[in-house]
Design a protein that fits this description.
By secondary structure, this protein is of the alpha+beta class. It is built from six helices and nine strands; from the N terminus they run H-E-E-E-E-E-H-H-H-E-E-H-E-E-H. The chain has helices spanning 3-18, 82-99, 109-112, 123-137, 160-174, 199-218, and strands spanning 20-25, 28-40, 45-57, 60-66, 71-73, 143-145, 151-154, 182-186, 192-196. Strand 2 and strand 3 form a beta hairpin. Helix 4 runs antiparallel to helix 5 (160-174). The protein is elongated and about 75 Å long.
């Protein structure tokens, strides 16, 4: 059993008696708030928490799972530092082993880590994609904003087909530098829709297409 597993189990044992348990080890800390139970099934020993688990590194929140509302977050700390990322990855492993056998949390950090989750924070394209990302997350049911700037991923509300629309729109904007001409937003019917940025962008796009068509004909 790893040090992190031992810390978590110690916090769970205290929570089982009092409804709250914590465990410290150096610069690491884990807190369990709520009811913790162990149930022996025909297959294995099941761990169940009706509450929230929060993990800390240097007194900063870096990872949490809310089992009541079925959501998870890394507090946008995924790429804060190499050591922080390693700590988050270790906690993810601990909880996946016990609670996420169906991999419902897989890829959650894209939706909770903010723009840094996919590195689109450089140049005009990055700014355009960041803005589009915020618009998309503001309307989808699986991203929850807690009022403190933190994104939570609600795994039971995740819609893979709707999420794929965002990934496809991101790819389209990247290809041929289409981000210079197009943008995506929600329309009145709640659909994720592509549109020209403005009238000037539409004119420039049509000129580009005519130029590319002439080059193909001349080839």
């Amino acid at each position: 059993m790893s040090n992190f597993e031992e810390m978590f189990q110690a916090a769970c044992n205290r929570a089982r008696r009092k409804g709250y348990g914590d465990s410290f080890r150096g610069k690491h800390k884990v807190v369990v708030e709520g009811e913790y139970r162990q149930l022996m099934t025909f297959v294995n020993l099941e761990h169940r928490i009706n509450g929230v688990v929060t993990c800390y590194y240097y007194n900063s929140e870096i990872f949490a799972i809310d089992f009541i509302n079925k959501r998870i977050t890394n507090f946008k700390m995924e790429r804060y530092s190499i050591s922080t990322s390693r700590n988050i990855s270790t906690w993810e492993w601990v909880f996946r082993t016990k609670y996420d056998h169906e991999r419902k949390w897989h890829g959650y950090s894209f939706w909770t880590g903010g723009h840094e989750a996919y590195g689109a924070n450089v140049g005009d394209f990055g700014k355009s994609l960041n803005t589009m990302y915020d618009r998309f997350c503001a309307k989808v049911p699986w991203v929850y904003f807690d009022g403190n700037g933190i994104h939570w991923f609600a795994w039971d509300k995740y819609d893979m087909s709707l999420a794929s629309e965002f990934f496809e729109s991101r790819t389209f904007l990247y290809n041929k530098q289409n981000w210079r001409y197009f943008d995506y937003n929600w329309d009145e019917q709640g659909r994720w829709t592509r549109r020209f940025k403005n009238a000037d962008a539409e004119k420039r796009w049509h000129k580009r297409e005519k130029r590319h068509l002439a080059m193909r004909k001349a080839a």
